[in-house]
Specification:
It is a single chain. The chain is an alpha/beta fold. The chain has 14 helices and 13 strands. The strands form two sheets. A seven-stranded parallel sheet has the order 3-2-1-4-5-6-7, sandwiched between helices. A six-stranded parallel sheet has the order 10-9-8-11-12-13, with helices on both faces. α7 crosses α12. The two termini are about 20 Å apart. The model has no long low-confidence stretch (mean pLDDT about 95).
């Protein structure tokens, strides 16, 4: 099968990593795969060299849009894909418009969040909905949110969960010790970890406020945050004004997230909104106890193997972190093992790939 995947950009977010993982798996399975990135710096890229990558660096102007449409039209005419699969709002709308100027046998458009923008974007989704064969989102809650906002009619969008490489994301004692030494954690130090872009959606001020409530009572606590983004200057300054500069480590972009998962004593997600919560599944695959805000598909991922708290409630988040840290070693071990088993059974990358291939062939009920 010839597969063309189009994504808004290849930054360091969960959607971008998911797409790169998928195209690698498709290529390994013998499919011909081309990946198009519309704009932005390429920080994630496929590993498999058989995947052809086009980076358009599309300008955000009318002429830039027209040039990009012509460029992808040429790619389609030369490659002749059986399926085009777009990811994220700009690529989704782009590919729907593309269908007006070039034949596309099958077009699937995937959103990756409960919120992909304001009214104008929801209007654009609704206006172009019929140009896609089917749309998907990463959780049932995200699908319901799109229907409620009028972005699509009921039945026109289905949930297809993200998948992770459960062999890559697994606990390693060696990684645990090396990363903790890298941070210079003292003996008995306990590490909280958060991973995600430094943007409004991840609500890191919520996490910092919760941490500030805990730290005065527990000097053994430390926090590491992996990610980059619009708030890369603001958040360290906020931590400093809270008197947390020595206890909060901003690690920037890291490609060894699996190792840092092992280093953590507790994984924390403080988001205001999410789609699927890919990093939650990754932490669970590494047998970490998770405390997370109840947003997007996070509850669908965690099930009963973690703690959920309301969004934007720092006191509830702090209380849940404190509760999880107080669990016995045996309780943490049991929950960690159950969490990994849940991810292996429900959210493995192999399962996601199989679901996509079925959908590409029209075998999944729409």
């Amino acid at each position: 099968m010839r597969l063309l995947l189009v994504i808004t950009g290849l930054g360091m977010g969960g959607a971008e990593r998911q797409v790169c993982d998928l195209v690698d798996c498709f290529a390994m399975a013998g499919h011909e795969v081309t990946l198009v990135s519309l704009n932005g710096a390429t920080l994630n890229r496929p590993v498999d060299t058989r995947v052809r990558l086009f980076e358009l660096n599309m300008q955000k102007t009318a002429s830039g849009l027209i040039s990009a449409l012509k460029a992808v039209r040429r790619i389609i005419l030369n490659f002749k894909p059986d399926v085009i699969h777009s990811h994220m709002v700009h690529a989704n709308i782009f590919c729907r418009l593309l269908r007006l100027i070039v034949p596309i046998p099958r077009l699937i458009c995937t959103a990756h969040s409960t919120s992909e923008g304001g009214r104008s974007r929801m209007w654009a989704y609704r206006l172009t909905d019929q140009l896609a064969d089917i749309s998907t989102n990463v959780s049932e809650e995200a699908v319901d949110a799109f229907v409620a906002k009028g972005a699509c009619k009921p039945g026109r969008m289905i949930a297809v969960a993200n998948g992770i490489d459960v062999e890559h994301f697994r606990f390693s004692e060696n990684d645990r010790q090396s990363r903790r030494q890298e941070l210079g954690l003292p003996p008995g130090g306990r590490l909280l970890l958060a991973v995600g872009r430094l943007t409004e959606a991840k609500d890191y001020p919520n996490l910092l406020r919760a941490f500030s409530l805990l730290r005065p009572q527990d000097r053994s606590l430390y926090l590491a945050i992996i990610g980059d983004g619009d708030l890369c200057q603001t958040l360290p300054h906020l931590a400093e004004t809270m008197g947390l500069a020595g206890q909060v480590h901003f690690l920037g972009m890291r490609r060894d997230i699996n190792a840092w998962m092992s280093a953590a004593d507790l994984f924390v997600l403080s988001s205001a909104w999410e789609g699927f919560g890919l990093v939650v599944a990754e932490a669970m695959a590494c047998e970490r106890v998770v405390v997370a805000t109840n947003c997007g598909g996070v509850a669908e991922v965690i099930g009963k193997e973690g703690i959920l708290v309301p969004v934007k409630d720092s006191q509830a988040l702090a209380a849940a972190i404190n509760e999880a840290l107080d669990w016995s070693v045996e309780q943490k071990r049991r929950i960690g093992q159950a969490a990994r088993q849940r991810v292996v059974e429900r959210f493995s990358l192999g399962a996601a790939v199989e679901k996509w291939l079925q959908l590409y062939q029209g075998k999944v009920a729409e």
